[in-house]
Write a structure and sequence with these properties.
Blueprint: E1 2-7, E2 13-17, H1 22-31, E3 39-42, H2 48-59, E4 63-68, E5 71-75, H3 85-88, H4 98-105, E6 107-111, H5 124-132, E7 136-140, E8 143-147, E9 155-157, H6 166-176, E10 182-186, H7 192-203, E11 207-209, E12 215-219, E13 228-230, H8 235-247, E14 251-255, H9 263-272, E15 274-280, E16 283-288, E17 297-300, H10 311-319, E18 323-329, H11 338-344, E19 349-352, E20 355-360, E21 368-370, H12 374-386, E22 390-394, H13 397-402, H14 406-412, E23 416-421
Parallel strand pairs: 2-14, 3-13, 9-10, 17-18, 21-22
Antiparallel strand pairs: 1-22, 1-23, 3-5, 4-5, 6-8, 7-8, 10-12, 11-12, 14-16, 15-16, 18-20, 19-20
Bound molecules: uridine-diphosphate-2(N-acetylglucosaminyl) butyric acid (EPU).
């Protein structure tokens, strides 16, 4: 096991290059299965989740190879329907295989994704959409088995209690592109990652109208071709670096981004006093107001609302801002595992239902803390950058699932961050269960 040791107190500065989006790339790997031809994906982030997805596609029969650090080739001439539990259980996004497998070979056997610390994550909406299209679905020994031999185009309302579903929309969309007739998906997700999936599918020959809206119209075609596609920049990674600059009151340039994807987040930052100026099409300069930051309110919502994937990092930032900030989680109402760890660093945060109430401004103290999931890891690292003394973040394998070279990029910005084996810690600070 590795840990990150962070020595807090440095204001970060310099330029950081943002990688391709994890949550765009993962369904695109699955989409490559829709054609028997070769697909090349560029600007793919170098992450453990991507490597797992590559292994799963290989298991399904595709020839998968890496042409460079961020370029993958997928050649799925022959595909079989059984996804391996050992790999699927490591990554919920593998549920995105259902749609392409059912569309291409009319059969899928994908293990039900397991529990998740960010809260209850059902797949009922994925299954509802496929059932409405005529798929027969059963659950056998934890494996979702889908027979898609009778798929037909229908009108589906795919929204749920918490709004739209991102990977559920991806699944229904990918099932529909090869289904004869016009399928409509109302209440569809309009995240940039779904728009990027539509862009890739259209390059493959799919007929899709309404990308970026809540109403998708898909006219099924007989077959799709391969394509070369460049994955969009990771808006969550970009925003995480913006908050790293804000939490250290530093000054950075975030490069290789799509500023238009940061709307609701940028608004909250602006109101708090984080100054964001985009002087070129794909970069943004970040610094903080000279008279300090103001407390802020965040409500997480599906796009174009404030992303749930930034709530933990925003919570860490709020801890350093004098006054009362409130963060309300509307997507995953129990995604607050970072809070007990922030309390260990001296933060004052109370949780009332799905609201985190942060009394910010008290200095944070470095401490050994435990990362529970990807975004919580980033939040604890941000808190460590602002804290007095040393912070040791355990279980950073969560971080490596979703941030390419986070520690290297922060070091290049002047942060004191070191990756060490856990054995480098005094025994009393080692994690009891690792
Ligand atoms: N939901 C249902 N039923 C379903 C599907 C979802 O009730 O069948 C609910 C969920 O419980 C949640 C809400 O709908 O309350 C939204 O979930 P969604 O399906 O949109 O999430 P997801 O597709 O499983 C993706 C990202 C997550 C991100 C969420 C929300 C990928 C691979 N994952 O998950 O990313 O938090 O959308 O934006 O795209 C992360 O990167 O750290 C991460 C967790």
């Amino acid at each position: 096991m590795e840990i990150l040791r962070i020595k807090g107190g440095n204001q970060i500065s310099g330029d950081v290059q943002i990688s391709g989006s994890k949550n765009a790339a993962l369904p695109q790997f699955a989409a490559a299965l829709l054609s028997a031809e070769e697909t090349i994906l560029e600007n793919v982030p170098d992450l453990s989740d991507i490597r797992f997805m590559g292994e799963i596609l290989t298991h399904l029969g595709a020839e998968v190879s890496k042409l460079g650090p961020n370029t993958w080739k997928i050649y799925p001439a022959n595909v079989q329907p059984n996804a391996p539990y050992e790999l699927v259980r490591k990554m919920r996004a593998s549920i995105c295989l259902l749609g392409p497998l059912v569309a291409r070979i009319k059969k899928a056997k994908v293990p039900m994704p397991g529990g998740c610390v960010i809260g209850h994550r059902p797949i009922d909406l994925h299954l509802l959409a496929l059932r409405q299209m005529g798929a027969e679905i059963s659950l056998n020994q934890g494996i979702v088995e889908v027979d898609g031999s009778g798929l037909q185009a229908v009108d589906i309302f795919i929204g749920g209690r918490h709004g739209s579903t991102v990977t559920g929309t991806a699944n229904a969309l990918m099932a529909a592109v090869l289904t004869p007739g016009v399928t409509t998906l109302d209440g569809a997700a309009c995240e940039p990652e779904i728009v990027d999936l539509c862009t890739m599918l259209i390059k493959m020959g799919a007929r899709i109208d309404g990308a970026g809206s809540h109403l998708l119209k898909i006219e099924g075609v007989e077959k799709l071709n391969g394509c070369t596609h460049r994955v969009i920049p990771d808006r969550i990674e970009a925003a995480t670096y913006i908050m790293s600059a804000a939490i250290t009151r530093g000054k950075i340039r975030v490069k290789g981004i799509t500023p238009g994807h940061l709307g609701a987040f940028a608004k909250v930052m602006h109101e708090s006093g984080v100054i964001l100026s985009s002087n070129e099409e794909d970069s943004m300069d970040v610094h903080t107001r000279a008279d300090g930051l103001s407390p802020f309110e965040v409500v997480t919502l599906p796009y174009p609302g404030f992303p749930t994937d930034l709530q933990a990092q925003a919570c860490a930032l709020a801890c350093t801002v004098p006054g009362l900030s409130i963060l309300t989680e509307r997507v995953y109402p129990s995604r607050f595992m970072h809070i007990p760890e922030l309390l260990r660093m001296g933060a004052e945060v109370s949780l009332e239902g799905a609201n985190a109430i942060v009394r910010g401004g008290k200095p944070l103290n470095g401490a050994p803390v435990m990362a529970s999931d990807l975004r919580a890891s980033a939040a604890l690292i941000l808190a460590g950058l602002a804290a007095e003394g040393e912070t040791w973040v355990h279980r950073i394998y969560h971080l490596d699932r979703g941030y390419e070279s986070f520690d290297n990029k922060l070091r290049n910005l002047g942060a004191e961050v070191e990756r060490l084996p856990e054995t480098a810690l005094p025994p009393t600070f080692r994690s009891p269960t690792d």
